[in-house]
Design a protein that fits this description.
With 369 residues, the chain is of the alpha+beta class. Helices cover 23% and strands 28% of the residues. The chain has 9 helices and 15 strands. The radius of gyration is 31 Å and the shape is elongated.
Length: 369
C-alpha cells in the first residue's frame, strides 16, 4: 500500500520526457539486474520497482491517469506490481538492456522463479468508512510454503523449467524448447517435505492481514495489495491480494459520486411559516433552517458534507444536497377544509412563477454537469 512515487523511483521530475524515462529506467535496470546482483533480494526488489514505474510512465495513457489520480488511478492496470514475475519483466522490456554491460533480456542460466496465485476477497463498507477511510483486519486462507521443506534444482533442466532439443533436419539444425517432464516446468525437485504438504510443498493456512482502505472508494473498485496473496513454491514471489469494494446502502442518504443526496419532507405549514429540521449527515445529525415560503423541489446545498475525492492530489469533499419535498395531506378535517376553501382564491395562494428561477429539471441537469 505504501508505494513510492514512480517519478521518485526513477529519479525524475514530473515533466520528464519519454527519452528521460527510458534512459533513467535503463540505468537502474542495469544497476540492479539479477545477473549483476546474484542472490541479492534488495537489488531484486529495486529491479522490480523500477520496472513497475517504467511500465506506467512509459505508457502515455497510464501516465496521464497516474499524474491525475496517483497509484489508485493505475491499480491493477500496470500488468505488474510488487509481486511481478521476473520473466514478465524480461519479456516486456528485455530489449532495453541490449548493448549495455553485456546483459541480455533473459539469462539462459537463471533458475525459473515461480509466482504465487492472486487471492480475491470482498469487503463491505458503510458510508462513514468510505468517507473517512479505514483499516480492516481480515482473516484469509492462503497457501504458504511448509516449514522443514528441502528442494534442489531439477537436474534435467538445470532449474530452468524447460529442456532444449536440437534436431538435425534437411534445412539444418532446429532448436526446440518444451516443458521439462521431470519437474513439470517448476525447475525444482522436492527432496523432503512434511506429510501435510502438497506436491509443491505448500499448505493452506488461515492468516490475518490488515488492509488500509483510502477515503473515497466506491462500489466495484478493486484495490491491489502486493505480495499478500498465495505464496509461491520454492521461495518464489508471492501473489497479490485483490480487494473488491462493496458499498452498504445507507438508510437515508444516497451516494452519487462525491455528493450525497437526502430527501427532506415537510408539511404545508412548515413550508409557509419556515422551520428548523434535524437531518442526517455522514458524521451525524445537523440542524438546518428552512426559510418561509420555500417551494417544493428546492435543493439546499451543504458544502463539504459529502465524500472525499479518491484522487491523491485532491481530497476535497463533495456536498450534501437536501431535496425539499412539500407533503400535501390526502385528508383534512372540516375546519381545515373550510380554511383552505376560504383562502384558495386569495392572492397569496395563487401560484406565481419566477421565470428567472431555474426549474427543478434545470437544477438537476446543472448539478450533474
Amino acid at each position: 500500500m505504501n508505494k513510492r512515487d514512480y517519478y521518485e523511483v526513477l529519479g525524475l521530475e514530473k515533466n520528464a520526457s519519454s527519452q528521460d524515462i527510458k534512459k533513467a529506467y535503463r540505468k537502474l535496470a542495469i544497476k540492479f539486474h539479477p545477473d549483476k546482483n546474484p542472490g541479492n533480494k534488495e537489488a531484486e526488489e529495486k529491479f522490480k520497482e523500477a520496472a513497475e514505474a517504467y511500465s506506467i510512465l512509459s505508457n502515455s495513457e497510464k501516465r496521464s491517469r497516474y499524474d491525475q489520480f496517483g497509484h489508485q488511478g493505475v491499480s491493477g492496470n500496470s500488468g505488474f506490481g510488487g509481486g511481478m514475475n521476473m520473466e514478465d519483466i524480461f519479456e516486456s522490456f528485455g530489449d532495453i538492456f541490449g548493448g549495455f554491460g553485456g546483459f541480455g533480456g533473459r539469462s539462459s542460466s537463471r533458475s525459473r522463479i515461480l509466482r504465487g496465485s492472486n487471492l480475491r476477497i470482498r469487503i463491505k463498507l458503510n458510508l462513514q468508512e468510505i468517507s473517512e477511510g479505514t483499516t480492516k483486519k481480515i482473516k484469509v486462507k492462503k497457501l504458504i510454503q511448509a516449514k522443514d521443506i528441502e528442494f534442489s534444482n531439477c537436474n534435467a533442466c538445470n532449474g530452468l523449467g524447460q529442456v532444449t532439443r536440437i534436431t538435425n533436419t534437411i534445412l539444418g539444425q532446429m532448436q526446440t524448447s518444451s516443458t521439462c517432464p521431470q519437474c513439470s516446468g517448476k525447475g525444482k525437485i522436492i527432496t523432503k517435505k512434511p506429510i501435510e504438504a502438497d506436491e509443491n510443498g505448500m499448505i493452506r493456512k488461515e492468516t490475518f492481514t490488515e488492509i488500509e482502505i483510502p477515503p473515497g472508494v466506491s462500489e466495484g473498485m478493486q484495490l491491489k495489495i502486493p505480495n499478500e496473496g498465495n505464496e509461491a513454491p520454492f521461495e518464489g514471489v508471492n501473489g497479490d491480494l485483490l480487494v473488491l469494494i462493496e458499498e452498504q446502502k445507507h438508510e437515508e442518504l444516497i451516494r452519487d459520486g462525491v455528493n450525497i443526496h437526502y430527501n427532506l419532507y415537510i408539511n404545508i405549514s412548515e413550508a409557509i411559516l419556515g422551520t428548523k429540521k434535524q437531518i442526517p449527515t455522514i458524521e451525524g445529525k445537523v440542524e438546518i433552517n428552512i426559510p418561509s415560503g420555500i417551494q417544493n423541489g428546492k435543493i439546499l446545498r451543504l458544502q463539504s458534507k459529502g465524500i472525499p475525492n479518491i484522487s491523491e492530489y485532491s481530497r476535497e469533499k463533495g456536498d450534501l444536497l437536501v431535496h425539499v419535498n412539500v407533503w400535501t395531506p390526502k385528508k383534512v378535517n372540516p375546519k381545515q377544509r373550510k380554511f383552505f376553501e376560504e383562502n384558495k382564491n386569495c392572492e397569496e395562494f395563487i401560484p406565481k412563477i419566477d421565470k428567472s428561477e431555474k426549474s427543478f429539471f434545470e437544477k438537476i441537469k446543472e448539478m450533474f454537469n
